[in-house]
Write a structure and sequence with these properties.
With 569 residues, this protein is α+β, with helices and mostly antiparallel strands. It contains 16 helices and 21 strands.
Length: 569
């Protein structure tokens, strides 16, 4: 499911293209709607038809294809009397969980769920690449695509799980989630309503992990992590923790709105979004802990972290069950400067809930709290689990420490779970707006004068040379992209792949296995010696031998007989 920032990236991709079309005076009349049928839907086509072969197909008004969760499926094609050719795209807007396309007479809302993003394909990219490669080989499926003639607005997806909605007006679309960044007050109202429903329900057990509750309640939160050890009761019945959660979410959303476009700008090629390894790795600096080999802590966070470990060791030696409370002294490892923008830069702030009585000692005079969360949590006496911070609470002058934060992942598996390992040594997705299966690929060309890479919008694209397609196939097989169960697929021709995934010029994939060893032995070459400059004495000494070596500028070593007038010194 897309995170908050990832959905901003899809919205920015569409709005950027839409603004360019409106500036050029191009009217975006819908001409066709495309989609990849499901396995069950393909069985209704003739055996050798494009649809049965896995290719994307155009839809017609008789199409009854539905997509979405099991109990909330909706039709892809517009309802009668619309034919799909009588709509004009006018604008696009975003909610925290969906995109809304305004076609004038109809509005289309798409709830992006499992690994779904937005891409803008040119006519040539769509006809020559997407339509020519079946869904089994292109690397992704086309959930739905809107064809406007010169361009196609498509939603590539991993497994066709997304929820479409058509409605005559914007108000008739499903309930839109309140945006934590643009409407913080309404977001808090929705949160309070959800919390009260949980408190008053007899069937709710608040002893479960809070992180699982947040994942399931995506109508309130989207893409924000919690300590995996806290229960729902410990978070949502604690004013300080629930307020910290809200302010951290706002801070997370703010950077997405203000800085994400700068991250995406170098990755747009025309209107298509494509990124190389270095561009993907830049998102690592946006993450505090997730997928990182090492993270920095402020000096006070380091002290809290060390104290936390000491308390755990002390109670561990007692061999007794311990209830987490104020007397337990397990203080939260919380760095206030991370949420300083949320407390200082918006009208509604929750500092009084986070810090309690300490809030009055800060450098500025706090305003009278007026927000629904404060009213809902009034009267709750729950420890904040924060050490008294003092006036320098929000100061950012603390020097970072090189202390390592350990995760719950086993030590021997931590390297393979890092962001960098996923990007550089696998073909799977990590975390971030550049980590989708529908991302276009940048294929670097070798040789002088060919600095610009080739943009391939899908795997095995017909638009790239055959040799580059073979290299791509070899690279996929070498890395072991496809998996069976918990292990990698066995590579049948592992020895036949040269560095970079290139197939060997001598070994053929259809060659009998009995001959493979002989071919390998016959094609082995000696490692070229290092290029070293010879001193004058060494040169004179070697010229007196029967044979001496002359090294060319291409680092090839050739044995040469000495000339007739060679002298011995």
């Amino acid at each position: 499911m897309p995170e908050y920032r990832e959905l901003i990236a899809s919205f920015t991709t569409i709005s950027r293209w839409l603004e360019a079309m409106q500036t050029a005076g191009t009217e975006l009349n819908l001409q066709q709607i495309w989609a990849d049928p499901t396995k069950k839907e393909r069985k209704k086509f003739a055996a050798h038809s494009p649809a049965a072969s896995g290719q994307v197909i155009p839809l017609d008004p008789k199409c009854k294809y539905k997509r979405g969760s099991q109990h909330a499926q909706q039709r892809i094609f517009p309802p009668p009397p619309f034919s799909g050719r009588d709509l004009v795209l006018q604008s696009v807007e975003r909610t925290p969980r969906s995109l809304i396309l305004d076609f004038g007479r109809l509005h289309f809302q798409i709830h992006l769920q499992t690994h779904t993003m937005a891409q803008i394909y040119s006519r040539q990219q769509w006809d020559v690449e997407i339509c020519k490669v079946d869904e089994f080989n292109r690397g992704f499926k086309i959930g739905v695509a809107f064809d406007f003639g010169p361009y196609v607005l498509a939603f590539p997806t991993l497994d066709k799980i997304f929820t479409p909605h058509w409605a005559p007006s914007r108000d008739e679309l499903p309930i839109r989630h309140a945006d934590v960044y643009s409407d913080f007050a309404k977001f808090l109202e929705g949160l309070v309503e959800w919390m009260r429903n949980r408190w008053e329900s007899d069937s709710v057990n608040m002893g479960g992990l809070a992180i699982n509750v947040v994942r399931e309640a995506d109508i309130v939160f989207g893409g924000l992590g919690l300590s995996v050890f806290l229960t729902e009761y410990e978070v949502f019945r604690c004013p300080s923790r629930v307020a910290r959660l809200c302010e951290a979410f706002w801070t997370f959303a703010r950077r997405g709105h203000e800085d994400l476009k700068k991250l995406l700008q170098p990755c747009w090629h025309g209107f298509i979004l494509a990124a190389d390894q270095n561009q993907r790795l830049r998102y690592l600096s946006w993450l505090h802990v997730y997928g990182k080999q090492r993270t920095n802590l402020s000096a006070r966070s380091k002290e809290l972290y060390n104290e936390y470990l000491l308390v755990l060791d002390r109670y561990s030696s007692m061999n007794e069950d311990v209830t987490r409370s104020a007397e337990c002294c397990l203080w939260d490892i919380f760095e206030p400067s991370f949420i300083r923008p949320a407390i200082q830069d918006k009208e509604i702030q929750l500092g009084h809930l986070i810090f309690g009585e300490e809030w009055q000692f800060l450098a500025w005079s706090p305003a009278e709290p007026k927000d629904p969360l404060t009213d809902a949590l009034a009267g709750l006496e729950f420890p904040s689990n924060l050490i008294g911070p003092g006036k320098e609470l929000l100061a950012s002058s603390n020097r970072p420490s090189a202390e390592v934060l350990y995760s719950v992942v086993p030590v021997d598996e931590m390297e393979k779970e890092t962001f960098q390992y996923t990007v550089m040594k696998t073909m799977t997705a990590a975390r971030g707006p550049l980590e989708y299966c529908g991302m276009a690929r940048l294929i670097k060309r070798q040789g002088a004068g060919q600095k610009e890479p080739i943009v391939s919008v899908c795997r095995l694209s017909e638009a790239i040379p055959h040799s580059l397609r073979m290299r791509e196939i070899g690279g996929i097989e070498r890395i072991g992209r496809d998996r069976k169960g918990a292990g990698k697929r066995k590579r049948e021709h592992e020895d036949s792949l040269a560095r970079g995934g290139w197939p060997s010029k001598i070994v053929r994939f259809d060659q009998p296995e009995a001959d493979m060893q002989d071919v390998k032995e016959n094609t082995e070459v000696e490692e070229r010696p290092k290029k070293r400059r010879r001193s004058a004495d060494l040169k004179l000494a070697t010229e007196g031998s029967i044979y001496y070596e002359v090294r060319s500028t291409r680092s090839r070593t050739i044995s040469v007989a000495p000339s007739a007038d060679a002298r011995l010194v």
